[in-house]
What does this fold into?
Amino acid sequence: MNISNDNVNPYKDTVPEPGAKIGPNKIELLIGEGGNANIYKVWHTGLEAVRAIKILRKGNNKEAQERFLTEAKILADIHHPNIIEIHGLGYWDRQVPFIEMEFIDGTPVAKLISQNSRIALPAALAITYYVCVALHYAHTKEYTLYGKVFRGLIHRDIKPDNIFLSKSGIVKLMDFGIARPSEISLHTVGDKIMGTLVYLSPEQLAGGTLDHRTDIFSLGAVLYEMITGHRAFPQKKLADLVQAKTKGTYKPVGSYDTAVPAGVTELITRAMAISPDDRFPNAARFGQSIYESLREVSDLSPDLILNQFIRDPGSVMIKKPPVFTPKNLIIGGLITLGAAIALGALLYVIL
It folds into this structure.
């Protein structure tokens, strides 16, 4: 007896292999695996361009599919240089959804940390600055989802794996899989905690009410890790992690073997405050403080710092303050005196 395969979903038994076609895209290689989806580097045969596709993994339930489609709708309405761009939505075998997006030829921050032990302070601040810029855009933009207009989006999963640095030095924020509008939760998850636990804010870890400041906490934890090379909350057991976060207990940044200005330590402490009211009020203010601290440690612009870091991570150094020896103090005094005399002469002529 012949059994029809019309209703059989081959995705239950297999995953795409290199050379397979998904829509107009030919798969080249697997570049990422997550809890719900795989990401592939592909070649768009029609446009002759390199792209990436994100496709649901086998065994996902209806809720995971809804979150996947919500991510596609969100990304379709986002156009920012520091946020990954979506190109389209399609279905593999007319059943399994996939998102076609830009291919980021670069490295996640998590890998940069592991490769270099830690990220040089100017580069860490520059990366954080651009993530702040991206978050400010996401937190304040209007979105139309399921026929309703919402203002502001919470990412809810800021972590080193979701921040990429391209080979041209451009920071890209990605993975909006559990993002939601500020005003409403689109998907009920019951007691399930969404996001990567070690980077979640205390209120998110406790399943409390969230606003955009939860992303600020998570970004502060990422900055801490970039600078020190260690997680702020390394606890392995959930109970220990919850206790540490609710009490705000973590090893001080300055206790590691790395030079960190007091101003940078203070802004990390503020970003990771237990109460959202004690954090930066928004990503723009956090970014402004990051930029001010960056100016104190480097004379280069954020983009030049990251271009230099990509070429040679060891070449990104903190600028040294001027050393005042008796000789240059005398020279400086003479210059100041000369400037004062010149100014006095100018005023005499004018008067």
In short: Residues 1-13, 185-191, 345-351 have pLDDT under 50 and may be disordered. The chain has two domains: 10-102, 106-315. Residues 106 and 166 are 4 Å apart (CA to CA). The two ends are 111 Å apart (CA to CA).
